[in-house]
Amino acid sequence: MLYHFLYPLRDFFFGFNVFRYITFRAAMASLTAFGVSVWLGPAVIRFLSRLDFKQTIERAGFSALYGAHAGKEKIPTMGGLLILGAVTASTLLWSDLTNRYVVLTLAVVLWLGGVGLVDDYLKLSRKNSKGLAAANKLAGQVAVGLILGAFLYWDSPGWQKIHVPFLKDWAILIGPFYILFVALVIAGASNAVNLTDGLDGLAVGSTLMIALTYGILSYVTGHAKFSQYLQIPFVAGAGELAVFCAALFGAGLGFLWFNSHPASVFMGDVGSLGLGGALGVVAVLIKKELLLLVVGGIFVAEAVSVMLQVASYKFRKKRIFLMAPVHHHFQLKGLAESKVVIRFWIISIILALAGLSSLKLQ
Predict the structure, then answer these.
(1) How far apart are CA 261 and CA 205, in angstroms?
(2) In sequence order, what are the residues at sequence separation of 6 or more whose Cβ sits closer than 8 angstroms to the Cβ of residue 61?
(3) In whole angstroms, what is the distance from residue 57 CA to residue 110 CA?
(4) Hey, which residues does 76 pair with through a beta bridge?
């Protein structure tokens, strides 16, 4: 918004020329989103507390950790509204709103946030852990992925190629299956973050590393000279997604101010589905979908641990982990919650650096 109002005034005052630079607007978007989160955080927490929208912990199957988590039933959830609100406001304020990738990204994120909001509301209004039916929840995630995939598929044949990270000039042409692939990325990313959101600061802290990494990747992908030098696919206009990623980073950092251990608020599904969807859609739009498996390795490990646990118990009647997702396994092994979270953050940083190394290791 500021870009459209102030950049045209550069002929009257040269200082407004700074709004043309994505790096400047990305930095300001991050600071704005952080400021909005920290400023509105206490008011949002009080509002959610008055609504009595607090975390519900299912005792069945959770008894081993119930003592450590029981106090969390008093903590308000649905704090993801704060994250999505700060991201949306900051992106609208600092990005080029004529850029279709920004519009697509916000649409997907708000859609998935809406799915999570319905799920949270049903859980909290019923005072149990059963919210939106699993099939309906998945349908909402897959539907937006199919719509995005179909739009890109018919937009240009170039979208139908899946580029393999770390391998120069390796791309897989999948044709119409690209639509299903996009739906898989969006649904997979949103569910993976949702499964990771089980400890104070774990999901949002890990998201920060990925948002920062994909912000850098977005910038170089949308820069003709950088993309040519690095020999990565050039996507005209994708650089504007760096502003969105910066806003996501700032909003997440602001939310972590209140969500760090001991948490004052939880993000709920409205936050985890929205954040996961944000990572997924950016990965798709800058053609770095497979790299998300590396950069978002923590989320992948959490999701895979659940799938392996379910499959093992179904076919072998034995559990692989003491409890899934895997962060609970480490808790039951005796690690303190804060230690598990910080170690997962460290791994996320290492994976983010590995992801960035793909820019030259190809």
Answers:
(1) 11
(2) none
(3) 26
(4) 54
Buried b (16+ CB within 10 A) or exposed e, 335-355: eebeebbeebbeebeebbebb
Region of residue 78 (left: phi > 0; alpha: psi -120 to 50; beta: else): left
What is the spatial distance between Cα 218 and Cα 13, in angstroms, rounded to a whole number?
A: 30
- Could you give the count of Cα atoms lying within 13 Å of 90 in the half-sphere of its Cβ? 32
User: Which stretch of DSSP H or E encloses residue 162?
Assistant: strand 161-163
Q: What is the pLDDT of residues 244-264, one digit of tens each?
A: 999 999 999 999 999 999 999
> Please, are residues 202 and 338 in contact by the beta-carbon 8 Å criterion?
no
Q: pLDDT of 203-219, one tens digit each?
A: 999 999 999 999 999 99
CA geometry: angle at 304 spanning 303 and 306, to 5°? 70
User: How far, in Å, are 99, 147, 157, 161 from residue 174 at the CA level?
Assistant: 27, 17, 10, 6
Check residue 8 and report its DSSP letter: G
Question: What are the φ and ψ backbone dihedral angles of 234, each rounded to 5 degrees?
Answer: -90, 130
Q: Which residue has the tokens 């900051």?
A: 90
- What's the rounded Cα separation, in Å, for the pair 293 and 361? 16
* Tokens at 162, concatenated: 């899946």
